[in-house]
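User: My instructor asked us to take a sequence, write out its structure as C-alpha cells, and then describe one feature of it. I'm not sure where to start. Here is the sequence I was given:
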Amino acid sequence: MTVRHTHLREKAIELRSQHNLTLDELVERLGLPRTTIYYWIKDLPIPRTEQQSAARQRASDANRDRARAKRDAAYQKGWEEAPSLLADPVFRDFVVLYMGEGSKRQRNCVEFVNSDPKLVALANRFMREFSARKLSHRLQYHADHDPEELKQFWGVVVGVNPGEIKEMRKSNSNELSGRQFRSIHGLLTIHTADTYFRARLQAWMDFVKSQW
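Assistant: Let's start with the prediction itself. The C-alpha cells for your sequence are:
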C-alpha cells in the first residue's frame, strides 16, 4: 500500500469512527472506489443512518410483498367468481366494454371515459357495485359547451350531485368552432383508486378472453 493509500485508509477509518460517515459519504468525500473503502471499514460499527436505511428498505420490501400478495389474492378471487358473474349478460357487457374502452395503464385504479350516456351509465353501475372506494367523476368539455348544463345532465346519468363532478375544458376546444357535434354532452370520466377491484377486473377480462 502506498503512502497516499495508507493516509486515505486512516482518513476513512477516522471519518467512519469519529464522524459516523456512511459508505456513500466516504466514497464521495475521498473519491475512491466503493469496494476499496468498504474493505477498509467493513469491520467498523455501522452508523445509525445506514442501519435506518437498511431497516427502511426491509420495511419497504415487506410492504411491497404484502401488496403483491393482496393483488394476487384479489385476482384469484376474480377468476373464481368470473363464471357466475359473467352468467349475467349485462355484467359481461360491462367487462367487454371495459376491455375495449377502459383504462388499463395502471394497476391501482379503474377508469372509464366516454361520451355515450348509455355506456357511461353501464360502467358507472358496476364500478359503483364492485369498488370498495368512492367513485369520482370528471367532465371534459369544449369552449362551446355550457359546463353547468352538462354537469346537470351527467349528474342524472350517474346518480350524483352535479356539484361533485369536476370539470376540465379540453385543451383543443378553441380549435373546434363550427364543428359537427359528435359529443354533445362532452366526455365523462369515472375513476376509482381501488387496486384490488382492478385486479379482480383484470381476472374477469382474462377469463372472457380465455373463452374466445
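For the description part of your assignment, you could build on this observation: The two ends are 70 Å apart (CA to CA). Try explaining in your own words what that tells you about the chain.
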